[in-house]
C-alpha cells in the first residue's frame, strides 16, 4: 500500500477485467483503477510485454510500476481449456471487460461478446483496436504510432515545409495509445451510466474504440479546412497555425522558453517588454490574423530580445508582466516542480519490487472522492491465488493443480 484513502474513491465497487497488453487497454484500466475500480489484469504466463520496455532496475521495468499500478494480476495460458473456464468465471464477477486484441481474436479464443454475456448479461465490453471492429482495415495490424500516422498527427509533428529534411518526429510518448485508452475509459463510464442510472435499462453494451479515430478526433480544424477550402494543414514547428506570438524562443544560456502572448492585452505587454510598444500599431502585427500572417518576422523580433537574457531572467520578466511562459520541462524539472509537488502530482512511492520510485499522481483530482495509489505494478500473476479463491471459488488444491499443469503462473 502507498496511499491510505480517507474517503471512498469515486469508482470503488466497480470491477473490471482487463484482457489487454501493451499500452491502450492497460492505460484505460489504469485510469479506472486510479479512481478506485478493482482491476483484474489477465496476463500471459510470461507477463505483459510492457514489463520489458524502458529502463529496468533489477530486471524490472520502471514504467511498469506506474502502468500496472492498482491492478491485481493473474497469469494464465489462455490456450488451455481450464483458462477458458477461469475467464468466464471472472467475467461473471465483473462489470466491465476491456480488451485490445485484433478484431475477432477474442472470439476465436472463445471469448466473443455472446460468450461473455452468456455469463454476465449486463456486461460492458470495451474493444480497443487499431482501426475499429468494422470496415476494410479492421484486420490490419496497428500500434499507437500507426494510429498517429493515419489520424493525421504524425504529419503535423515537424518543422514547417522546406525547413527540415528528416522524417516527422514522434510526440515522445505513446500518445496515440493513451488517447485511445482515455476515450475507452470515458466511453466505459458512459456505458455504465446508461446501464445503471435511475431509469437505465440495465443492459450490457459493447464499445468500439479505434486508435486512428481517437487521434483524428484531436485534429482541430484539419478536416473542415480541407473540406471547405481544400487546405491541407501543414506542420508549424514550435508555433501555432492559428495564434501568434506563440513559440519557443532561444535564450542566452542555450535554452528555450515558450511564450504565449497571443491575445491583444498580452501582446501589448510583451511589446513593452521588448522595448517596442509601437509594434501594436504596426499593421503587420495589429491583430491576431495579421500576426499569424507575419509570424516568422515577429518571432525573429522576439528571439532577438530573448537571446539577450538567460532562461531564468526571461521567465522572471515574463511572469512579472503576467504573460504565459515556461521553459520546456525535462524530467528533472517536472520532478522538482513545487506546483506538481504541492498537488501530489509528483509523488514518491514505495515499490516492493524496485524500491522507492517517482510516480505521476492521479487525474482527475476529485477532492471529495480522491483516487489513490493502493499499490504499484505487481509481479506476474501476483494475485492469482486470491483472485481464483475470491472470484472463482477455487480451493487451494485446485489452484495448485493448475500451477503444476502450467495453466497458471
Automatic annotation (TrEMBL):
InterPro entries noted in UniProt: CoA-transferase_III_domain, CoA-Trfase_fam_III, CoA-Trfase_III_dom3_sf, CoA-Trfase_III_dom_1_sf
Superkingdom assignment: Bacteria
Entries under Gene3D superfamilies matching the protein: Crotonobetainyl-coa:carnitine coa-transferase, domain 1, formyl-coa transferase, domain 3
Keywords: Transferase
Gene Ontology MF terms in the entry: CoA-transferase activity
Protein name: CoA transferase
Organism: Sphingomonas tagetis
Amino acid at each position: 500500500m502507498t496511499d491510505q484513502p480517507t474517503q471512498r474513491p469515486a469508482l470503488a465497487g466497480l470491477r473490471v477485467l482487463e484482457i489487454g497488453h501493451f499500452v491502450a487497454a492497460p492505460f484505460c484500466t489504469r485510469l479506472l483503477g486510479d479512481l478506485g475500480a478493482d482491476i483484474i489484469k489477465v496476463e500471459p504466463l510470461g507477463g505483459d510485454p510492457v514489463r520489458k520496455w524502458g529502463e529496468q532496475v533489477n530486471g524490472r521495468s520502471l514504467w511498469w510500476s506506474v502502468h500496472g499500478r492498482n491492478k491485481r494480476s493473474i497469469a494464465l495460458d489462455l490456450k488451455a481449456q481450464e483458462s477458458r473456464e477461469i475467464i468466464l468465471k471472472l467475467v461473471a464477477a465483473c462489470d466491465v471487460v476491456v480488451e485490445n486484441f485484433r478484431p475477432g481474436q477474442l472470439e476465436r479464443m472463445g471469448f466473443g461478446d455472446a460468450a461473455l454475456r452468456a455469463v454476465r448479461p449486463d456486461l460492458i465490453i470495451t474493444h480497443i483496436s487499431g482501426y475499429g471492429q468494422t470496415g476494410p482495415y479492421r484486420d490490419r495490424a496497428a500500434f499507437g504510432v500507426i494510429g498517429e500516422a493515419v489520424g493525421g498527427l504524425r504529419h503535423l509533428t515537424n518543422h514547417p515545409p522546406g525547413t527540415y529534411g528528416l522524417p516527422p518526429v514522434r510526440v515522445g510518448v505513446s500518445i496515440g495509445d493513451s488517447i485511445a485508452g482515455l476515450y475507452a475509459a470515458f466511453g466505459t463510464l458512459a456505458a455504465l451510466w446508461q446501464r445503471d442510472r435511475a431509469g437505465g435499462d440495465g443492459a450490457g453494451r459493447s464499445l468500439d474504440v479505434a486508435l486512428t479515430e481517437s487521434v483524428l478526433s484531436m485534429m482541430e480544424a484539419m478536416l473542415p479546412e480541407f473540406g471547405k477550402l481544400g487546405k491541407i494543414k501543414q506542420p508549424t514547428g514550435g508555433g501555432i497555425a492559428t495564434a501568434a506570438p506563440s513559440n519557443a524562443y532561444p535564450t542566452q544560456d542555450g535554452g528555450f522558453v515558450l511564450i504565449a502572448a497571443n491575445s491583444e492585452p498580452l501582446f501589448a505587454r510583451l511589446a513593452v517588454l521588448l522595448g517596442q510598444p509601437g509594434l501594436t500599431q504596426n499593421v503587420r502585427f495589429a491583430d491576431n490574423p495579421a500576426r499569424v500572417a507575419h509570424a516568422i518576422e515577429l518571432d525573429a523580433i522576439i528571439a532577438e530580445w530573448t537571446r539577450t537574457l538567460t532562461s531564468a531572467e526571461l521567465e522572471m520578466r515574463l511572469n512579472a508582466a503576467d504573460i504565459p511562459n515556461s521553459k520546456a520541462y525535462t524530467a528533472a524539472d517536472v520532478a522538482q516542480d513545487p506546483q506538481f509537488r504541492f498537488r501530489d502530482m509528483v509523488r514518491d512511492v514505495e515499490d516492493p519490487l524496485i524500491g522507492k520510485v517517482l510516480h505521476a499522481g492521479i487525474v482527475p483530482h476529485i477532492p471529495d472522492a480522491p483516487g489513490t495509489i493502493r499499490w504499484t505494478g505487481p509481479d506476474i500473476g501476483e494475485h492469482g491465488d486470491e483472485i481464483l479463491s475470491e472470484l472463482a471459488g477455487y480451493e487451494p488444491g485446485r489452484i495448485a493443480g493448475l500451477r503444476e499443469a502450467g495453466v497458471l503462473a
